[in-house]
Amino acid sequence: MSRDIQIGLLGSGTVGTGVLQIIRDHQKDLAHQVGSGIQVKKVLVRDMNKYQDIENAGELLTDKVEDILQDDDIKVVIEVMGGIDEAKDYIIRALKNKKNVVTANKDLIALHGAELVKIASENSCDLFYEASVAGGIPIIRGLTEGLSSDRISQMMGIVNGTTNYILTKMSQDGRAYDDVLAEAQALGFAESDPTSDVEGLDAARKMAILASLGFSMDVELEDVDVRGITTVTIDDIKYAEQMGYALKLIGLAKRDGDRIELTVQPMLLPAKHPLSSVHDEYNAVYVYGDAIGETMFYGPGAGSLPTATAVVSDLVTVVKNMKLGVSGRSIVPPLYHKQMKTHDEVQSKYFIRLHVKDQTGTFAALTSVFAKENVSFEKLMQWPIEHQIAEVAVITHTTTKSVYERIFAELEKMDVVVAVKSSYRVEGGNAE
Amino acid sequence: MSRDIQIGLLGSGTVGTGVLQIIRDHQKDLAHQVGSGIQVKKVLVRDMNKYQDIENAGELLTDKVEDILQDDDIKVVIEVMGGIDEAKDYIIRALKNKKNVVTANKDLIALHGAELVKIASENSCDLFYEASVAGGIPIIRGLTEGLSSDRISQMMGIVNGTTNYILTKMSQDGRAYDDVLAEAQALGFAESDPTSDVEGLDAARKMAILASLGFSMDVELEDVDVRGITTVTIDDIKYAEQMGYALKLIGLAKRDGDRIELTVQPMLLPAKHPLSSVHDEYNAVYVYGDAIGETMFYGPGAGSLPTATAVVSDLVTVVKNMKLGVSGRSIVPPLYHKQMKTHDEVQSKYFIRLHVKDQTGTFAALTSVFAKENVSFEKLMQWPIEHQIAEVAVITHTTTKSVYERIFAELEKMDVVVAVKSSYRVEGGNAE
Lengths: 432, 432
Prior knowledge:
By secondary structure, chain A is an alpha/beta fold. Chain A is elongated. Chain A is built from 15 helices and 17 strands. Chain A folds into 3 domains: 2-135 and 304-324, Rossmann fold (3-Layer(aba) Sandwich), CATH 3.40.50.720; 139-300, Dihydrodipicolinate Reductase, domain 2, CATH 3.30.360; 347-426, Alpha-Beta Plaits, CATH 3.30.70. The first copy, chain A, has helices at residues 14-25, 27-34, 57-60, 66-69, 85-96, 106-122, 139-146, 161-173, 177-187, 195-198, 201-215, 234-242, 304-324, 362-372, 401-413; strands spanning 2-10, 36-44, 61-62, 74-79, 100-103, 127-128, 152-158, 225-226, 245-256, 259-270, 282-289, 293-300, 347-357, 377-386, 389-396, 399-400, 417-426. In chain A, α6 links the parallel β5 and β6.
């Protein structure tokens, strides 16, 4: 057994604490796998006074990043501090000082992943970021190793635990969005500023990372068409369920030939679809490959120990690569040039819910709008809701985004349409 | 781009055909990843005449294994011929000739995996077998890499597609075992001799492989306590469902402290458990780790292309390792000494279904048998079925296998018990 591998940890929040715990509790198993002990030499914290009751605090803690970046004994830097600019600066300096890096920072990787990977490669260092997508679920290895021989054509992910928790509670308890959000915040499942989660931005970052790897192209965050869950109502969920569907916030990355589309939005999935059974704060990524067909990775998408599992598993690979002398050599640059689909190429079914005047001719007028565009219905429901107003919910057969946008605009202008209440994409096949 | 990597393929059945197809169809993506082309130089077949209409048959095919094992240009041997003795002999000779090996052979790995891995290591060759468990699902990488930092405490697998298909159809269509088995054979989902599948032996082999890796110990096939699905009835499935459970053939590997248990048997799982939604011929492995909590890998457990995906993904890793000069160096020997639990240590809930005499005192007599052993009921149903006979179904709270065996023996002897119809373990928590 050779000398302990020395680690520097940037950040000591939720994930950092989990990393320290796993390295301590699983030391024997880790040492067996990598052939030497693993020791955290320094932890960068913002406020030294906060941690004075930790054992060894004086030796272990520092508020000067140079104590880690300039320490030649430290061979691996784990970045779990979050944020963009400072974290990026530290990671680049660590790589340039020939330190391997493991990060859990999805914001940073989604925005600057390609640049950082290039710097890692130039410095013969590893840069791994399994924890940046779907917490403990080993989806990045799944794509880059387990399915490395296949051609991935589609990925559908429930990759944000907060929004999945909110939608689950809305569906199960029949409670309104604001109500469930407030509860989630009280329980610590949602941030006090939940914007990044509920507006779909967090999921978009993860989908950009997955699409880059799964499609082997440089996908950027702005390629993702994003819509959050803030306008989802109980009615939408209940009507979807009556029609055999579940309403979920889905990150969708689709490839047809050389062209891709990328979106995060609330979608209807058939109730029997495996993603529809992913409840509460759990995450799952459904992957379609040409050869394998469909496969799914399921697990906890956040939390201290689950996320730390992914970080420390990356660390195991980093240390193994160090011992084999192959650090920085597993990087595969993108093979394909990114080409986004136009609205004429994006194909989908759609759900739309309308309030219409409950009078003769309404239905004929509505259906003629769809018929004019050659779009037929898979399912249709109509029932009266109040004086002279009826509610209509429709699921169309597959059409293009351009055609649907024309239909939508037309419906909004119609005299007989009192209000377009909601509209969602429908993916994952037909309901029973 | 350097010279093509030359492959020898042993076997040209279902999986072999898939391997050839993926290497051909995904050549560009594969070459990009590994840095050179991949070419199948020779395919070992039993009967040359069967394949004469294949392009290049004369050059590509051989019925002499030496054409592969003695060819110095061939650096990787893929074994997809199946069987034990011959395949083992060929693999050992390939490894001794410094050829890396990828195999899909679960029977061989379950029986001789440790020996073969040792020979691979001694010859600085890789030996990978992702395809041996759960077809295309990258579960072996999941355990050995994605969850490498965690301590796995439990694995529950639906790892045999044939039996899962049969149980799904029995449940959905209310049809008898024999009837569904005959249909599955006609459709090609079941072998003409289905023994290995329906008796649980195939699943046992896969669980032995998973337990060896997940628990880092040398688990052998005979450590697995096996019971198949041949005696499962529609009634069992229906009563389980009424009590909130699904009946599935589950491979269970459990570790408590230093002691493990390993079994394959039909079990009841709560209907909301993620494994309960795994239908038809699909496979899934549910993994519990101390740090990650629960995670699941889902996908096609068999089939030409899905299984070939796992084989060729292994091939990608083999070729990458060759180029990095680290072949045979990823092998981690077992860390722990295997210790099996005794029947006093195996804990579980149980379902038991009885036909009893419908007379005063029966119920009191039954419950006293359980009460004497301090075993209480989670759920209980009783209803009359024919003249003076009632059916009783019970789900117990957790007890040990020893205690349950005593209760079972006692019940079988009782006057008021006409017949013990069935008995199953209940795992995965409580039903709602």
